[in-house]
Prior knowledge:
Elements: E1 5-9, H1 14-27, E2 30-34, H2 43-50, E3 57-60, H3 74-86, E4 91-95, H4 96-101, H5 105-111, E5 116-122, H6 129-140, E6 145-151, H7 155-162, E7 171-177, H8 184-190, E8 196-198, H9 211-217
Parallel strand pairs: 1-2, 1-8, 2-3, 3-4, 4-5, 5-6, 6-7
Helix pairs in contact: 1-2
Amino acid sequence: MIYKTCVSIAEKTPKKIKQTLVKSLKKSEYAEIRFDFLRPDLVPDALDLIKKDLKKCVGTLRPISEGGNFSDSEKNRISILKLIAEYNPFLLDVELNTLRRNKNLSRYIKSTKTNILVSWHDFKQTPNISVLKKKILQMKKFSNNIKIVTMAKSLNDASRVLSLYNNNKVKLIAFSMGNYGRTSRLLCLLLGSPYTYVSLGRPVASGQFSVDEVKSIFTIKK
């Protein structure tokens, strides 16, 4: 079985995104383009530059309020999300809170034939299992592609998130942040996650393994 990876790319110029993407896709099945690290006016240039590879890319435009880097207005962020959708990436990561506040956004994205990855993060803790399961039900209203990431303060926290893989009706990406959650970034693959997020070398998120580390762990030596 092939365990897939998705390299997170957080560059500040379209040219650098292109260069890093070329390197990433030589090692990884997918790449996540963190458009929130670009100046908003540079996003169209970046999309044009990488449009041929977007079928292997997850597009993300995370606001500061959700742990990202986008600091412009929410109105502008929604406009950029719609623009990214028009380029038909593999997945477009949109936060649950964003979809709930902007009722027409999911409808617009679906009209472009782009699949939504509904995401929800808790950067402080890991809620109890009933809260997590309720989140999945809320997220399923927008897409079957779901991403749940929490902060683990114990091994029990990490295992609680991984227990969500018992729900086989969604395409789930679920793991934990922090030292206690680091191994969940690997274990999620064994439990059915379509891929895990990795770095090309320098972690974009705390606890990320590099793509080389993950590929070496899951490659069986003959």
